[in-house]
Design goal:
Elements: H1 2-20, E1 31-40, E2 43-57, E3 65-72, E4 75-82, E5 88-95
Antiparallel strand pairs: 1-2, 1-5, 2-3, 3-4
Length: 121
């Protein structure tokens, strides 16, 4: 009973989010630019977070997320974004990387050229 209600709410939220804008298909290992709307006081601006998608969780629910990792001033920075967030304007795929795993957490330990993924052509 409760699970049916939760499924119904999830379906409504996904439908509401997808009718506003279509999410581009991206996979694990893709280099992406995430355009995030940020509110500062009364002003609103778009900030871009570019990096590699290292994980995706919750495939079809409204709580689905994806994790993007980048190196910023020599320090690894990871952000988890809700897939159906109203604050995400768009997700641009820059290049697709060839992977054989669902989670790329091993990239955390690699630096330099070793942390690069082969490109899918």
């Amino acid at each position: 009973m409760i699970s049916k209600a939760i499924d119904k709410i999830n379906a409504e939220q996904i439908a509401k989010a997808t009718e506003k804008k279509a999410k581009p298909e991206f996979a694990i290992g893709d280099s992406v630019k995430v355009h995030v709307r940020i509110k500062e006081g009364e002003k609103e601006r778009v900030q871009i977070f570019a990096g590699t998608v290292i994980a995706r969780d919750g495939a079809s629910s409204s709580t689905a997320t994806f994790t993007v990792r980048r190196i910023s001033f020599g320090v690894g920075v990871e952000k988890v974004f809700p897939l159906y967030s109203p604050f995400i304007d768009k997700v641009e795929v820059e290049r697709s990387g060839k992977t054989r795993r669902a989670k790329l957490y091993y990239l955390r330990d690699l630096t330099g050229k070793k942390a690069k993924l082969r490109e899918v052509k």
